Polyol transporter 5-like
Amino acid sequence: MGGRNDEISATSGLQSPLIKPLRRPHKPRRNYFALLCAVIASMASVLVGYDIGVMSGAVIFIKDDFKISDVQVEVLVGVINLYAIVGAAAAGRTSDWIGRRYTIVGASGFLFVGAVLMGFAPNYAFLMFGRFFAGAGMGFAPLIASVYTVEVSPASSRGCFSTFPEVFVNFGILLGYVSNYAFSKLPVHLGWRFMLGIGLIPSVFLAAVAILIMPESPRWLILQGRVGEAKQVLIRTSDSIEESLQRLADIKKVVGIPASCDDDVVQIPKQSNHGSGVWKELFLHPTAAVRHIMITVVGLHFFLESTGMDAVVLYSPRIFEKAGISSSDHKLLATAAVGLTKTLSVLIATFLFDRIGRRPLILTSIAGKTISLIILGTTLTIIEQSDERMTWTVGLCSAMVLSDVAFYSIGMGPMCYVSSEFFPLKLRARGVSVGLVMNRLSGAVVTMTFLSLYRAITIGGAFFLYAGIAMVGWAFFYVVFPETRGMDLENVEGLFGNLLWKFSDHE
């Protein structure tokens, strides 16, 4: 009863001049329950990052143990991106069908099975079978983490909370690098098994925590007609009662539920959310705004991967070897520095997305990445054409690898998840899945061709190619990317509709 009286008092305060002076004018405190929900949803990304990071070192030992070729190494490393396409394509429909929370549980289940199968793989073929389950989980996890976090976060913290999946991906990559170093002293046939198999522990923990603590997304609940439950979740995840009621009213308006409906008494019918209708709205008969959103999100995911980040992360030991670092321990330590740099950079981005904004960060990110790739390509070319080892080139090459991952993680990487806020409610899960399919497809091309590419055009030439793509990416983001900082989620769609973004009107 007390909660209901509080709601009445709060809504009365919006109308009565006698109560208005009692409202606090300063910025509301951060909602810690929403923070907790965002953290739990993003924990699946630890396993995604761990698999990326650990494979960079594990593949060295797998190659020695199974006596596989470089082409088989490329397939082993890159095929998980193709498998992830299956998960990403299914995740949109699944999250609309069974809900965001249970989709997180499903993702952790796939990652658990993948870790077990890979850890006990007796041969290359069985290892590839385990990679399928890990890849499917990697397709589910990023989508549901970004969609759930965007939907549960209050507007004041949405940019910050939406970067959490990328924070946890980078933390997972760092853990993978540390695992490589920790288990590298074991016999060859055991070391890589421990590296890959230990990922089963956090997957079990995630599934248990998600079931016990996380509420369902309020927006998904409203789509199912469960408005009363959605209201309670919004009250717990908003900065104030007034904000929760406003968020509820906005969502009801978008879904088509009359604002005057007394949802505590009248049963609300379930809203239609059929897959065929969603796909038609996305591809066959999109509005100008939806078309602009799809171009922006698909382009974002393409440039995220096609600028070579997966090549740097997964093949960093080979890059450092080309730079002149010959010791295995030193290569693994340098690789761990890559993971640490990525993690620290994305933590900085967490504080900047709601202060500086999305647009300045992503433009700065891809510009810095372009410069880093050009210098890295130049340095590696000098190293290849020189007959003697030069200390300054080793240092500069290492610095540019760290600079590349730092610039990526301060803008482009987190934006992969923050961009979930662009889509309207009904289209969000499927729209994000389309973006992730492009992400994984581009990642598969990069990771499965990098070794062959640098043999064909030199390793320096490979990074010049990635730099050229990054230049095109900067122009793309400048033209199509709007600023969404601080906007209510239901109003973000209104920023889209013109391909040439008139950003000057919103600064």
